From TrEMBL:
The gene is ANO2. It is found in: Membrane. Pfam families: Anoctamin. It comes from Terrapene triunguis. GO terms for molecular function: intracellularly calcium-gated chloride channel activity. This is Anoctamin.
């Protein structure tokens, strides 16, 4: 019977596999895994039946994330259009572009750089207003609430899918990882690893991660050195167009170098994270996956955002002032922000890195690398075929031969990772780039179909795995959402000119407008106080320059404390700190309020679960009632039996009644 049962099970499994391959795969390709089906909803239930709950949850999460990007993209476009519409009426931009009231600025480098008029940076100032305007503050608050609502809606959708997929009472089983089992078998099977045995692996992990993070910071420092030295070299060029486009050239080339370094280090860090996790020898596959995700995310997070953090919070902060500049090397000054501020450069840095990663890493790599591997494997098999000259080999390869030529499935970690990094680009620095959700939406519309096609036709069909949630990825998303509130608060208060404009308008402006703001933010410097050997060799100015201007809040040279920080500096600094505290607490409160208002379990699912529990309780009560009746009947029969046993004279007179009174 057991053999027959197993045989029937095997036949049923083979039949189901054949039906699922013959029916589900073409249907999924036609309705889901084509770029022409981008406007259709994903068949999540069909995906779950063919690939299993774990992959089904991934595509459900990706679909919800892409759907939520639509309202954020619309709001981002409105914010950008607001900047375009108000650009012509922006008073600080007009003052910067006014050639009649030209401000003579101090040289940008020693000796080879001349004094220059602020009006020459008119285009940069006008472009900065597109992203540095009051609407970006509103958009930052909106995106923080958007992230909270997205996570709440995902919990609701996850609960709904778990209910319909019968995962509500599912407790995940522990599976051993094959490669880890191999590592353990190399040791004594009876010997258990203690914390002393694992300590060397942990120490190597910590040291390696710190080394990798230091390597990332070194790459950022190297690009910074490149920017400083290249700017100094181009400034002494004899070509006028080269000297006039120094900032644009240096910024563009440095961002491209950053992108290339990020792409290379991402691949290295992925392999290093896997090697370090295997060294720890985790006990279960789930533990292995969680530790791998944490290491890979930490390394790739630092790698992707380190250049952006440098531009946002460090560039231009430690420059010094004319006559007392800070030098990185002998003769190389620390780089300054553009006249319009660092926010415009932060926007350029963020947009190029984000778009470059999406285009190259998320799309070209996903299409090109599996295709090349498949082509290489096919060529290798054809050469082997010709050498063996197997006469029994069929001219038409079987389906399993074609499936074997596909790329093996390596897990969902790379798929989740690229979306989590993109989620960081959308939320962390959204105050500097409101169009980030738009580009993320366009990428994800392609990404959904690209991943679908890859799973259906480019990868071997993975084993189905039951999962009740997306695991540690939810905690990472929640952490990024909370961290984004702090980052955007500092971007608005420190990197943008929102707070200085606010302070000037309500504290220093004579008529409550922004007229005179540019003059208010520029300090005076007496050119006779320049250090010997740093003055411009040749000046194009016809009149002798006595005072030059530079962007800072410092006392003028004729004050009792020349070049010290002014009262305006401390007023702006205190306002910036107050804004960070107020913005952070306000957004955190609103996020907590949204979290409280949206229930984790949908109302219909909650009522259905309560109804099922009530039916289950009624069923058990009915069963217990039937058992109680049965017990009472047995008790009554026992009483009759005991009564019959006590009347011995009746039994002796009627022995045939024994069979009735005492049943067998």
């Amino acid at each position: 019977p057991n053999l027959t049962h197993l045989t029937l099970m095997g036949v049923g499994a083979s039949l189901y596999f054949k039906i699922s391959v013959d029916f589900f795969a073409p249907l999924l390709y036609q309705e889901w895994a084509r770029y022409g089906a981008f406007y259709k909803y994903q068949p999540i239930d069909l995906i779950r039946k063919y690939f299993g709950e774990k992959i089904g949850l991934y595509f459900a999460w990706l679909g919800l994330y892409t759907e939520f990007l639509i309202p954020s993209s619309v709001v981002g476009i409105i914010v950008f259009l607001y900047g375009c519409i108000t650009m012509e009426s922006d008073i600080p931009s007009k003052e910067m572009c006014d050639q009649e009231k030209a401000f003579t600025m101090c040289p940008l480098c020693d000796k080879s750089c001349d004094y220059w008029n602020l009006s020459t940076a008119c285009a940069t100032g006008r472009a900065s207003h597109l992203f540095d305007n009051p609407a970006t503050v509103f958009f930052s608050i909106f995106m923080a609430l958007w992230a909270t609502m997205f996570l709440e809606q995902w919990k609701r959708l996850q609960m709904r899918l778990g209910y319909f997929w019968d995962l509500t009472g599912f407790e995940e089983e522990e599976f051993s990882n094959a490669c880890l089992d191999l590592c353990v078998l190399q040791q004594d099977e009876k010997e258990k690893l203690t914390w002393r045995d694992r300590m060397p692996g942990y120490l190597v992990n910590v040291a390696s991660i710190l080394f990798m993070i230091t390597l990332t910071f070194s790459a950022v420092f190297g690009v910074t050195v490149y920017r400083i030295t290249t700017a100094a070299v181009l400034s002494i060029s004899k070509n006028e167009s080269t000297r006039s486009n120094v900032r644009v050239t240096v910024t563009a080339t440095a961002v491209i170098i950053n992108l290339v370094v990020i792409l290379i280090l991402d691949e290295i860090y992925g392999a290093v994270a896997k090697w370090l996790t295997e060294m720890e020898v985790p006990k279960t596959e789930k533990t292995f996956e969680e530790r791998l995700i944490l290491k890979a995310f930490l390394l790739k997070f630092v790698n992707s955002y380190a250049p952006i953090f440098y531009v946002a919070f460090f560039k231009g902060r430690f420059v010094g002032r004319p006559g007392s500049y800070v030098y990185m090397f002998d003769g190389y000054r620390m780089e300054e922000c553009a006249p319009g501020g660092c926010l415009m450069e932060l926007c350029i840095q963020l947009s190029i890195i984000m778009l470059g990663k999406q285009l190259i890493q998320n799309n070209l790599f996903e299409i090109g690398i599996p295709y090349l591997k498949k082509l290489f494997r096919k060529l290798k098999d054809e050469r082997t075929e010709k050498k063996e000259n197997d006469s029994n080999h069929s001219k038409h390869p079987q389906q399993w031969d074609l499936d074997y030529m596909l790329e093996p499935f390596t897990g969902l970690t790379p798929e989740y990772m690229e979306m989590i990094i993109q989620f960081g680009f959308v939320t962390l620095f959204v105050a500097s780039f409101p169009l980030a959700p738009v580009f993320a939406l366009l990428n994800n519309i392609i990404e959904v179909r690209l991943d679908a096609k890859k799973f259906v036709s480019e990868l071997r069909r993975p084993d189905t795995v039951r999962e009740k949630d997306i695991g540690i990825w939810y905690n990472i998303l929640s952490g990024i959402g909370k961290f984004s509130v702090i980052i955007n608060a500092f971007v608005i208060s420190v990197t943008s000119d929102f707070i200085p404009r606010l302070v000037y308008q309500y504290a220093y402006s004579q008529n409550g407008t922004m007229h005179g703001f540019i003059n208010h933010t520029l300090s005076y410097f007496n050119v006779s106080h320049l250090k010997a050997g740093t003055q411009p060799d040749i000046s194009q100015f016809e009149q002798e320059v006595i005072f030059c201007r530079y962007k800072d809040y410092r006392e003028p040279p004729w004050s009792p404390n020349p070049y010290e920080f002014s009262k305006q500096y401390w007023s702006v600094l205190s306002a910036r700190l107050a804004f960070v505290i107020l913005f952070q607490n306000l957004v955190m409160f609103l996020s907590a309020l949204v979290d409280w208002m949206i229930p984790d379990i949908p109302k219909d699912i909650s009522e259905q679960i309560k109804k099922e529990k009530s039916m289950l309780v009624d069923f058990f009560l009915k069963e217990e009632h039937e058992k109680l009746k049965l017990i009472e009947s047995f008790i009554m029969r026992d009483k009759h039996r005991n009564k019959g046993c006590s009347n011995q004279h009746i039994l002796s007179a009627h022995p045939e009644a024994l069979g009735i009174i005492v049943p067998s």
